[in-house]
Amino acid sequence: MPGVTIFFVIVIVVCTTFIILFNQIAAKLGQLESKLKELEAQLKKEFILKQQPEISREEEEQIVDLVKSARQSYITAVAVYNESIASFPGMLIAGMFGFRMISEGDDIRVPDSTSDDDIS
Fold this sequence. Notes:
By secondary structure, this protein is mainly alpha-helical. It is about 70% helix and about 0% strand.
């Protein structure tokens, strides 16, 4: 029976590790989404101010590049998250704890108790 006990201990450790990883990925996705929203708001503001001569075309292009970069980071993070819950053993953990696939338009909420210091 010691072999069975060791097996269950390993399963519990793996499950706990996956839960931690899923929470970290979800938190990072929430941070990326928040940054995207901030950048989009700044871009909208810059477009409004575009009519003013002080705003240069170069600054506008930099903002657009930042938004594109943040969006690509978000898409990549979503792909990694989705792949991790679609493969074994992630699918078992995801099913047990209600994790679901994320599409690009989903609204992702992260609990307020998560701080940047807790996320690696």
